[in-house]
C-alpha cells in the first residue's frame, strides 16, 4: 500500500499543479467557442428562435429610426419618444409593426450571417491568430453575404414602414387605402412590390445596395473587434469570480454604440436612397448637408442606440448562450464559464 501511495501521490500532485494554472487561466480569460466546437443542428434550431424573439422586441424602434431619418427636418416628429407616442396614438400598436411580416424573411440572412462569420473566423485562423484580425475580416465578410439577401427585403419593408395617416412619407402609397388602414398585410406588400416593379423594375429591389454595403460592412467589421476589446478590458478589471456573460452583456451595447456613432451618417444616406428612390449617394449626401447641415447625418442616432442597447444585450447573451448550448457534448466539461 505504501508503494502504491507513493507512486500515485506525486503523479496526482503533478496533475494538480498542471491543471491549476489552466483552470485559473480559463476563469480569467474569456474563451471563444469556434465553429468546429458546435453541434450545428442545435445551433441553427436555437438560433432561429432566438433571432425571432429579438426582432419582435426591437422592431418598433427600427420603424421609428427609419421614419426619423426620412422626414425633412422635424416636420413630423421631434424625436424618438415623440414619434413613438404619435404613431401609437394614430395607428395603435400595429402601427409600430408595419412591414414586420415581410421583415421576418431576414431570418434567412441572419443565419447566413452567423454561418459566414464563424466559417470566416475558422479560415482566417490559418493565417492569423489575432482575434482582432479574425473578428474584423469575419464581420465584414458576414455582412457582405447578409446584405445581398437583406436589401430587397429591406426595400419592401421600409416602404411599408412609411405607410401612415395623412401626409405621404415615401415614394409609394398603398392604393385604395389613403388612411393606411383596412388592407390585409400581404395585400399591402403585393401592392408595394407591384409599384416598385412598375417604377424601377427588378433593380428597384436593390436600390441602395452599395449604400447598405458601405453602412453595414464597416458596422459589422467594427462591432466585433470592439466587442472583444471591451470584454477583455472588463475581464481584467473585474474579479475572476464574475461570470463571463456579465462582461459580454455590457460589452455588446458599448460596441453597438461605438459602431452606430461611426456609421450613422452612411445609414441616414442609405435609408434616403432606398425610400426616396434616389440614384446617387453623393447627391443624396450633398442634398442632406444643404438642407440640414452636419447634424442631419446624426438623425435617428438616439433611436438606433436605444434599439441597439436592449437588442444587443439579448443578442450577445443569447448568442453566447446559444453557442454554449450547441457545444459538442465531449467538450462541455472542458469549458469554464
> C-alpha Rg, in Å?
24 Å
The CATH topology:
Mitochondrial carrier fold
CATH class: Mainly Alpha
**Number of beta-strand segments:** 0
Fold and architecture overview:
The chain is mainly alpha-helical. Helix content is 71%, strand content 0%. It contains eleven helices and no strands. It has helices at residues 2-28, 40-70, 80-91, 100-103, 106-124, 131-161, 185-200, 209-237, 244-276, 281-292, 301-325. The longest helix has 33 residues, at 244-276. The two termini are 39 Å apart. The model is unreliable at 1-27 and 177-184 (pLDDT under 50). Solcar repeats lie at residues 41-123, 130-233, 243-325. One of its GO terms (biological process) is branched-chain amino acid catabolic process. This is Solute carrier family 25 member 44.
Provide a compact summary of the structure.
This protein has 337 residues and is mainly α.
Amino acid at each position: 500500500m505504501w508503494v502504491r501511495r507513493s507512486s500515485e501521490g506525486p503523479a496526482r500532485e503533478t496533475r494538480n499543479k498542471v491543471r491549476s494554472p489552466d483552470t485559473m487561466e480559463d476563469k480569467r480569460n474569456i474563451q471563444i467557442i469556434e465553429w468546429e466546437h458546435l453541434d450545428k443542428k442545435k445551433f441553427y434550431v436555437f438560433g432561429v428562435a432566438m433571432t425571432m424573439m429579438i426582432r419582435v422586441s426591437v422592431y418598433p424602434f427600427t420603424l421609428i429610426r427609419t421614419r426619423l431619418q426620412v422626414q425633412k427636418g422635424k416636420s413630423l416628429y421631434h424625436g424618438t419618444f415623440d414619434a413613438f407616442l404619435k404613431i401609437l396614438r394614430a395607428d395603435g400598436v400595429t402601427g409600430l409593426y408595419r412591414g414586420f411580416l415581410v421583415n421576418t424573411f431576414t431570418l434567412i440572412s441572419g443565419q447566413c450571417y452567423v454561418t459566414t462569420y464563424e466559417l470566416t473566423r475558422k479560415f482566417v485562423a490559418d493565417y492569423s491568430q489575432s482575434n482582432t484580425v479574425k473578428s474584423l475580416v469575419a464581420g465584414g465578410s458576414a455582412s457582405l453575404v447578409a446584405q445581398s439577401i437583406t436589401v430587397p427585403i429591406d426595400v419592401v419593408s421600409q416602404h411599408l414602414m412609411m405607410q401612415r395617416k395623412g401626409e405621404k412619407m415615401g415614394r409609394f402609397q398603398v392604393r385604395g387605402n389613403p388612411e393606411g388602414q383596412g388592407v390585409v398585410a400581404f395585400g399591402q406588400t403585393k401592392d408595394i412590390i407591384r409599384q416598385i416593379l412598375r417604377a424601377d423594375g427588378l433593380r428597384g429591389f436593390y436600390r441602395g445596395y452599395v449604400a447598405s454595403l458601405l453602412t453595414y460592412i464597416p458596422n459589422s467589421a467594427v462591432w466585433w473587434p470592439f466587442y472583444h476589446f471591451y470584454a477583455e478590458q472588463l475581464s481584467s478589471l473585474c474579479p475572476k469570480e464574475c461570470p463571463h456573460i456579465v462582461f459580454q452583456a455590457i460589452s455588446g451595447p458599448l460596441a453597438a454604440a461605438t459602431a452606430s456613432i461611426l456609421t450613422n451618417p452612411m445609414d441616414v444616406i442609405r435609408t434616403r436612397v432606398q425610400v426616396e428612390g434616389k440614384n446617387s449617394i453623393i447627391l443624396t449626401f450633398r442634398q442632406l448637408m444643404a438642407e440640414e447641415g452636419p447634424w442631419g447625418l446624426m438623425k435617428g442616432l438616439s433611436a438606433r442606440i436605444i434599439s441597439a442597447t436592449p437588442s444587443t444585450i439579448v443578442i450577445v447573451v443569447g448568442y453566447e448562450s446559444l453557442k454554449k448550448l450547441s457545444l459538442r457534448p465531449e467538450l462541455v466539461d472542458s469549458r469554464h464559464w
